[in-house]
Amino acid sequence: MATTDPARLIVGITGATGIQYGVRILELLRRTPIETHLVVSKAADMTRAYETEIGADELRSLADHAHPIGHVGAAIASGSFPTIGMVVAPCSVRSLSEIAYGNSSNLLTRAADVCLKERRRLVLMLRETPLSLVHARAICAATEAGAIVAPPVPALYLRPQTVDQLIDHTVARVLDLFEIDVGMPRWGEPPDPEVAALPQP
């Protein structure tokens, strides 16, 4: 398998609620050698305006490279462009369905399709509840195709005191799936007083 130094990770952000997950992943990856390639859907830009004070340019500046959603000729649309995979954070049901059934209508779902065909890690942080049978079947199809569906379910065993701590633990667990350790507290390990929470931007 082709590799590159530094390793590259694609970050997709769709219009589901929870854009903070994608933002935090980008912030944490800035402290690592990982090269980030960001693609943001049109609906995600709407959600960004509803849920955060972050501007469109500011969001894109968190990544090393930001690709327009309609630019299907971007490097990340080709399997010859080596990456360690892609995370979609958050992932809408619409995007999940496109990815699960290979109906790529934009750069985000095309990049995800490339990860599947090249047998690279693809993690979908699905944000939807409750789930219908249609959703469940799409989850099954995506999983059978090789994706990991990882809904952002908060862990309470660390007794988080803030929403930021919940988000941090969730995205750190997702980055673990790419073998990227950002120093989160872990179950079964003695608490480190120096790491009460992940570093803030």
Structure, explained:
The protein is of the alpha/beta class. It has a single domain (10-176), classed as Rossmann fold (3-Layer(aba) Sandwich), CATH 3.40.50.1950. It is 37% helix and 15% strand. It has seven helices and six strands. The chain has a six-stranded parallel beta sheet, sandwiched between helices. Helix 1 crosses helix 7 (163-176) and helix 4 crosses helix 5. The protein is globular and about 45 Å long. The model has no long low-confidence stretch (mean pLDDT 92).
Q: Quick gist of this model?
A:
The chain has 201 residues and is of the alpha/beta class. Helices cover 37% and strands 15% of the residues. The chain is built from 7 helices and 6 strands; from the N terminus they run βαβααββααβαβα.
